[in-house]
Amino acid sequence: MSDSTNPAPPASSTTGTPRTPGSRLPTRRTLIVLASISIGWKLLVFTLGAALPRWLVSDGLSDLPPEWRAYGDSARTTAISLWNGPIERRGLIRSVRVVSVESVAATLAPAGCDGRSARVRAYTYFAIPYSEVRTLCDSGVVEYRVLRRRPRRQ
Fold this sequence. Notes:
A hairpin with a 5-residue loop joins strand 2 and strand 3. By secondary structure, the protein is of the alpha+beta class. It has helices at about 30-55, 70-80, 85-90; strands at about 95-105, 115-125, 130-135, 140-145. The mean pLDDT is about 80. The protein has a four-stranded antiparallel beta sheet with strand order 1-2-3-4, with helices on one face.
């Protein structure tokens, strides 16, 4: 028999040894396709994560009584100014919602204030609550609840 009827398998370009049909090395095209799929799903997930708070979380002002909406908007502006860290301001906080506005006792309110208090909640990616701001007149306090511990059972 001659060698022309049984040709030898092609040699691998890296090792010089013959390749069998079942043991193919990944081609460049396959690696590009896999990398594209990997990058594509990450872009999709991060885009949805950033868009969900805007779609699901309203500002909460329309739920307030009409006479309290002006203070609710002021409390929202105060809360946004309190989340002033560069990471919070540019990336972490995606949406803000006024949760409640209420009247407080005249003894708790400073002079020149109409005695209103509000709670404003911030949301991160995928509409996950991040923290709250408690406002009283034109000032506020941020209450971080991200890593809150549960009380221990005894």
